[in-house]
Design a protein that fits this description.
The chain is of the alpha+beta class. It is about 30% helix and about 10% strand. It has helices spanning about 50-65, 90-95; strands spanning about 5-10, 25, 30. The N and C termini lie far apart (about 40 Å). The relative contact order is 0.16.
Amino acid sequence: MTVISEHHFSTRLHQSTAPFSHFVRHGDVGYTTGIIGQRPDDGSLVSDDVAEQCEAMMTNLQTLLDELDLNSSSILRTTIYFTDYKDSTLSTLFTHTA
């Protein structure tokens, strides 16, 4: 049986010039990547502040999930890349959003 991937481009998130969809559903599994702390209107980062970027990223992810009739319990795994491992902001944010 052949399963066809469905690509979803959110109209409420920034449309990248790169050919990447916000979400890809393959059968009963979906994948998202590149959801970052950017403004939906122009794609610029909301701030240089890590906490503000993370809050915006979570808002953008929730926007996408809402469009797809999913919620945060549908998420299996997340990966965050950051450049300063000494920044304690992330542990505070995930305590706040959990």
